[in-house]
Amino acid sequence: MDTYDTADSDAHPILGRLIKIGLFLLAQGIAVLLVSLVALLVSFGTSWSATAVQASLLQPGDAKSGSLLLKEDGATTEAIRLGTDIDITVSGPTLRARVTQVFRNPTKDWVEATYVYPLPSGGAVDTLKMVVGDRVIVGDIKERQQARVIYEQARRAGQKAALTEQERPNIFTNSVANIGPGETVLVQIEYQEPVHQSGSEYSLRLPLVVGPRYNPAPIVQSVDFRKDGSGWGATNSEPVPDRDRISPPVLDAARNAPVNPTSITVRLKAGFALGEVRSHHHNVKVESPDNATRIVSLAEGAVPADRDFELTWKPAAEKAPSVGLFRERVGDADYLLAFVTPPSAEQATQRPLPREVVFVIDNSGSMGGTSIVQAKASLTYALSRLQPNDRFNVIRFDDTMDLLFPASVPADATHVGEATSFVSALQARGGTEMVPAMRAALTDKLGDTSMVRQVVFLTDGAIGNEQQLFETITAMRGRSRVFMVGIGSAPNTYLMTRAAELGRGAFTRIGSVEQVEERMRGLFAKLENPAVTGLSAKFSEAKADVTPAIIPDVYRDEPLVLAARLDKLAGSLEIKGRVGDRPWSVTLPLQNAAEGKGLSKLWAKRKIGDAEVTRTMREMTPEDSDKAILALALDHQIVTRLTSLVAVDKTPSRPEGEPLKLSELPLNLPAGWDFEKVFGERPHLTPTQLRERHADARNQPTARRPTPATPDAIRLPKTATSAELKMIGGFILIVLALILFVFNRRQPLLTDAA
Amino acid sequence: MPRFISPLVLALIGLILFGDGAYIHAKAWLAQVLLERAFDRSAATGEVVKPWSWADTWPVARIEVKRIGAGAIVLEGTSGQALAFGPGHIHQTVDAGERGIAVYAAHRDTHFRFLRNVAIGDVIDVTRRDGKHFRYRADSSTVVRFDESGIDPATQDVELVLTTCWPFDAVTPGPERYVLHATLIEAGE
After folding, report:
1. Which chain A residues touch B15 with a CB distance below 8 Å?
2. 3-state SS of chain A: helix, strand, coil percent to 5?
3. A639: which of A125, A419, A603, B54 fits an S-S bond (Cβ 3.0–4.6 Å)?
4. Distance CA A703, CA B85 (A)
5. Cα-flanking dihedrals φ and ψ of residue B52, to 5°?
6. CA neighbor of A245 nearest in space, from A678, A664, A692, A563
7. Residue A478 above 60 pLDDT?
């Protein structure tokens, strides 16, 4: 500041200073600009060496702006109504389900309806029927693209048409075109599924609703290198390419009455005298025509489709049969389905190996409500079961992630206590970034091969990027085994079963708080007892195509399920393996196999699953596995990722010139979920406009009409920055400062003169 | 020298404010440079290429108005962050060149500053990420409220809407939007 005082001797003191200050300010302005540019470059900086995974950069806000929010909910009287009836016949080891969806159009318009619905992931969908008035139109299996084209043509031509497409092995979409005003169209699909067995308990599970999935924003780029080894590849950065297709509108249960009433009937022919038959999440009526047959139906008639239906049954005898063998002849081949429950190893002779267990708990928003309670109770139970010589760690994740301990610690009282209080403080919120959590869990920091390494993953699996998770498990599993625990009223079982299969573990399902202890005890029996390993199957005479090709390890109480296609039904099947450290084998003569139903479809469905797995494991090129899947699907008439069922009523019904409206049927939120936790704040309720799709170009003039009266589907974003405001404000301040400065300079001069 | 302190502080605040405003422009400009590169790669390979590794958006198209020599790379989505870097494609709307209406929005003071100079009848060229070119002609413009855009997403024609805040020279945000409507006249590889 001294310069200002000594510069008085200049010829034009004020001017000189002004120039000086001007220069100073200019320099500073340039400096600020430089700093801001540098700041910008730094924030861009990491991109130049961008290989690191930047999961933490994902903000919760990004997750909430999914397509679900943008679609308004369809809570108006103008919407298409849907009713569902499910009729299941269990015959021994398999079940056949007929799902009838009734689309009723109460509006005055011609409507196209689409409905996203779940099916069990092991189900082979093979029949589509559309009932219009008294006519039944049976659908054909076609390649997916071709089916789409046929459907679109029929839609434009005004013909009634139905299309069944697979979005995920457990998510399907039905589209029905040209439902006339006041009309009702029935769409019926049928699928075949094996009955699930665990210990002496048999079960079937019927998912009724697709839980909203968290679809991660594309952040991490993955690279697909060309197979020819040329080193060229393409980046692929969309983790959920079909996010729109699996994100139907969802109704907030607090504001809307539940929709999609569903009635369920199960005809249970177990093939043995039945003991307890129990529905876990619904009240049911059970009739018993004879001791091996039960007819189960919902006690209160139709229920809203908002949770999975689970039915379990036990044989009257103390022990369930440990072997089941069934056959079916289709065309010139025999199909065989075998269930074998290996004996459990004697506890006394086996000291369980010390274990390293990594627990991963999902505390994302979709787990809000009762799910997080179940998850916390399960984990607390699991922690209490640890032995002092075990080691463990806990990881929690939503769209962020925390490891409780940097590496696994001994399960002593202090550590377990710390973990228990960590778990009880968890709250459900945020997105579901599952891949980084799985990666952290599979990272084997101890590398202590004298310990068995197990990952117990508790989640509802409500994500859309399943494939990325599978690839992570395949790439990183090492010696770890992954045990999936499905939580909540509608977990994503496809994710769970496939992840457990790839991770060579098992899948346990917990549907309510009451089930926690029983199911977790079952899981711990699996964790603590040696698995049956090194399994192989050999047919003595027949040439067989067996699936699964590589037989997974079997855990305590789980049966080994094999499906095979045989050239002739002769000789026997020998299964070998090791229980703990002792060899074990069993021989099944094929002549004793009982007649079963739909086994060929189950075989084909399993083969398709195998092909998808080899594709994930990169043992097969995508082209080869697609070819194999397509051939199997067309051969056995099954809906897959690559094939769809399409039915077209040849007689046109919609008169030319009548417009067609599209109605996406809303889903319920799964029971126990919290709408606000999943979608953030409740959207403002506005009467929904159906998305119109005009099938006829003649409607063009009306299509362009201005619609100021109704709120538009498209809201224009805010498109003004504060840049100018700031720059003007800044400029004014600088000028003000200059004036002040000059004024202040004048003042001393005047006083000096005086 | 206490009497110099207040003007200096004032000047400093002014500079910071000015720098902050300039930063928005600098970011908008620099992002477009990076986006240009990402888009060129994208158009060459047909794949989604992100301009920087953690971007939550990616270039989807290039729009150009040759008469006034203006253009910009359009990003997917219209989150505030995306709009800082370039015009955004409103994501309930179709892609350019598809049947229906594609809506691009951008800030009036950065990427769509040129919109005030676009006259009815001007040709707007859109190059999509997959390398396809579409040529639109501007045929009408309106000023609407942001929640009453009057844009019908179910139109049968192939249409394009460019939108930004209105009025152009205002410095505070407001509810009004300028909507420039264009219809496809030519499509090619």
Report:
1. 25, 28-29, 32, 730, 734
2. 30, 35, 35
3. A125
4. 33
5. -145, 160
6. A664
7. yes
Contact B133, B189 (CB under 8 A): yes
Q: How far apart are CA A353 and CA A348, in angstroms?
A: 13
Range of weakest confidence among A342-346, A651-655, A738-742: A342-346
**Chain B contact present for A684, CB below 8 A:** no
End-to-end CA distance of chain B, in Å? Answer: 69
Chain A closest-CA separation from residue B3 CA (Å)? 7
* B-chain residues near A39 (CB < 8 A): 23
Contact partners, residue A389, CB within 8 Å, separation at least 6: A354, A410, A411
Kindly state the tokens that stand for A328: 């079916």
Round to whole Å and give the CA distance between A311 and A315: 14
Which B residues in the span 18-57 are in contact with A, Cβ-Cβ below 8 Å?
A: 18-27, 30, 34, 45, 47-54, 56
Q: Mind listing the pLDDT tens digit for each residue in A174-203?
A: 888 888 888 888 889 999 998 988 878 889
User: Which residue in A has a C-alpha nearest to residue B161's C-alpha?
Assistant: A716
> Which chain B residues have a beta carbon less than 8 Å from that of A727?
17-18, 21-22
Distance CA A458, CA A467 (A): 18
According to DSSP H, which parts of A297-444 are helical? 370-384, 413-424, 434-442
pLDDT bucket at A87, cuts 50 / 70 / 90: very high
A481 near A446, Cβ under 8 Å?
A: no
Report the half-sphere exposure of A696 (CA within 13 A, side-chain side): 15
Residue contact B105–A726, C-beta within 8 A:
no
Chain A: nearest CA to B35, how far in angstroms? 12
CA distance A480 to A706: 61
CA distance A747 to B5: 15
Tens of pLDDT, residue by residue over B11-56, are 888 888 888 888 888 888 888 888 888 888 877 777 777 777 777 7
Nearest neighbour of A737 by CB, restricted to B14, B54, B165 = B14
User: A73 vs chain B: nearest CA distance in angstroms?
Assistant: 15
Query: How far is the alpha carbon of B186 from chain A, nearest alpha carbon, in Å?
Result: 19
Does B170 lie at the interface with A, CB-CB under 8 angstroms?
A: yes
DSSP single-letter state for residue A591: G
Q: Which of B52, B95, B156, B179 to mutate to test the interface with A (most CBs of A within 10 A)?
A: B156
Amino acid type, A23: L
Check CB contact under 8 Å for B14 and A725. Answer: no
Predicted local confidence at residue B25, as pLDDT: 87
Q: Is the pTM of this model over 0.80?
A: no
Q: What is the pLDDT of residue A308?
A: 85
Write out pLDDT tens, residues B59-106: 888 999 988 888 888 888 877 677 888 888 887 788 888 878 888 988
- pLDDT score for A676: 61
Per residue in A221-276, pLDDT (tens digit) is 445 555 555 556 555 556 666 766 666 666 665 556 667 788 899 999 888 888 88
